[in-house]
Amino acid sequence: xxxxxxxxxxxxxxxxxxxxxxxxxxxxxxxxxxxxxxxxxxxxxxxxxxxxxxxxxxxxxxxxxxxxxxxxxxxxxxxxxxxxxxxxxxxxxxxxxxxxxxxxxxxxxxxxxxxxxxxxxxxxxxxxxxxxxxxxxxxxxxxxxxxxxxxxxxxxxxxxxxxxxxxxxxxxxxxxxxxxxxxxxxxxxxxxxxxxxxxxxxxxxxxxxxxxxxxxxxxxxxxxxxxxxxxxxxxxxxxxxxxxxxxxxxxxxxxxxxxxxxxxxxxxxxxxxxxxxxxxxxxxxxxxxxxxxxxxxxxxxxxxxxxxxxxxxxxxxxxxxxxxxxxxxxxxxxxxxxxxxxxxxxxxxxxxxxxxxxxxxxxxxxxxxxxxxxxxxxxxxxxxxxxxxxxxxxxxxxxxxxxxxxxxxxxxxxxxxxxxxxxxxxxxxxxxxxxxxxxxxxxxxxxxxxxxxxxxxxxxxxxxxxxxxxxxxxxxxxxxxxxxxxxxxxxxxxxxxxxxxxxxxxxxxxxxxxxxxxxxxxxxxxxxxxxxxxxxxxx
Length: 539
Fold this sequence. Notes:
- Its cofactor is Mn(2+).
- It is an enzyme of class 2 (transferase).
- The N and C termini lie far apart (about 55 Å).
- This protein is of the alpha/beta class.
- Helix 1 runs antiparallel to helix 11 (about 285-295).
- The protein is built from 17 helices and 16 strands.
- An eight-stranded parallel barrel has the order 1-2-3-4-5-6-7-8, surrounded by seven helices. The protein has a three-stranded antiparallel beta sheet with strand order 11-12-13. Strands 14-15-16 form a three-stranded antiparallel beta sheet.
- Residues about 535-539 have low confidence and may be disordered.
- The chain has helices at about 30-40, 55-65, 85-95, 110-115, 120-135, 155-165, 185-195, 215-225, 245-255, 260, 285-295, 315-325, 350-360, 365-385, 390-400, 445-455, 500-539, and strands at about 10, 45-50, 75-80, 100-105, 140-145, 170-175, 205-210, 230-235, 345, 385-390, 410-415, 425-430, 435-440, 460-470, 480-485, 490-500.
- Helices cover about 40% and strands about 20% of the residues.
């Protein structure tokens, strides 16, 4: 899937930079689900992780390379510091990919050189040359990033990029690491690189930026006008601090305003050819999947994929849209895959029809997952007469959450009312298979449920976010609950969907607690292994 020279290359880093967002940690199976959807979306490159960071990151990069990195699929990339071990590990993880890329980086701003690296400019130049060449010895496709390029001395930046390209870098990425630059400044940086790096014609200019000032997308679009041809972005704009440039916003800006951007790519102004390889009808589905798996909710007024992005409440707007959508809409909701709430199935529908509809919606489930999803569908269908596509998506996304199955909710019962004391009784099955029941009172039914669960599980935590959203309209709508727990400095998310919001709340809480419990167990086992190793060494 090599992009045409006159197209913008979309480099998705949701699984690397996006996952660094507090609370958005994904396990290997969840990363694989997202990677498959990114391939359907049509991204050119998937940065699958930072292979050397942990065994889990290595496994994720390796499995994505094996499963998604097919000859007709996207390029699979792993990040690596300009260090031999990082590059070796990345190369090993990427071996199964038909089109592997190693993305290596080193900081170039004076503030990073002085306080972080404690190295001189000449040392950084030498490391750049050596490590890019080393990465090139493993793969043909090497990307180099001068970290904090936005705050680097331009003359030194030109030198580093020239050295990296001469050593074999095929893409040079210009990161606005701290989201500091403005569009005019960022455009000028790209223009300066085009004019002052002698061998720049041998590499593609890429951009990477954070949204600390809310300017990431604007910066990228200005970069395109000045010669950038690869955009590094994430689904829903998730990422460290204020996040990254949002893929959906960039793609749709380039699509809706292609006549404006055509000349910058050497095309006729009136060309209708797409500027990216993205299948825009997969955008909304991808956004929902990433939101559900990471626990990072999309704000209602978020551009392109927010719940209000195509909603009109003003009477003047409603009147105009009813007469002609173009009066107040610059794109069709169906263009991003946001179809009408079509009623498709009911409680009498069979497994074959259910599976066929899921395939039409883009879900490819293994036999076991399909069976679980079908059982959930039947449970919901008994409560709701009509099941919409959005309901189906909620059911399937809920079933494919891959939180460790440790504690399980067996029973939730609440008593509450205007003059009653909210009381909850819960029964949980423990990881050892024992059933434990406890009860608690709270300020409301959900608070009571959570207090009862905490008495059973007995794992200290702080609930920092609780959110409920309705999947569809109507009194019988499925409710989606997303929560985030804090333990120390780590954040764990949980998600569940059910027609009973109290049950969904309990299941979401257990989902998050299971993630926390699994992390504590893993930490405990690692500590024991380290202790045994130390004891053996002392002997």
